[in-house]
């Protein structure tokens, strides 16, 4: 477990090229993977996968903390729709990453942090305010 002042040695952070280097918001946290294709509704901006603990959660302007997304070639399309409506997450933090999650981050132009130890799930909880940036 980590305290307020503890830092991580292995943090990989990718920031959008458009200059937006921060993502601020309320944490939405799950130790499970999330599929954006079929698991997230960009219109209601909520998780609709009934098997995911985030079911019913809005992702609008949230800091999404997950193990990773479930690989789907439609992830970037779903995230692009959410972005056009102004309903996308403010940042992603993953302990693992798949290539399609990286592409989704590029589509959204939001901060994307990966490579954190799973210890993050012991110290950041749903509703915590999180500031991602450099």
| Portion in strands | 15-25%
The total strand number stands at 8
Write out the strand line-up for the largest beta sheet, numbering strands in chain order.
1-7-6-5-2-8
What structural class is derived from the secondary structure elements? alpha/beta
> CATH fold name, please?
Glucose Oxidase, domain 1
Which runs of at least 5 residues are low in confidence (pLDDT < 50)? 1-19
The first-level CATH class is given as Alpha Beta
Instruction: Round the Cα radius of gyration to an integer and report it.
Output: 14 Å
Helix tally equals: 2
Give the N-terminus to C-terminus distance in angstroms.
23 Å
Number of separate domains: 1
| Helical proportion, percent range | 10-25%
CATH homology superfamily name: Phosphohistidine domain
By CATH, the architecture is named 3-Layer(bba) Sandwich
Mean pLDDT over the full residue set: 77
Would you list the SSEs in sequence order as H and E?
A: EEEEEHEHEE
What best-fitting shape do the alpha-carbon axes yield?
A: globular
For the sheet with most strands, the description reads: 6 strands, mixed
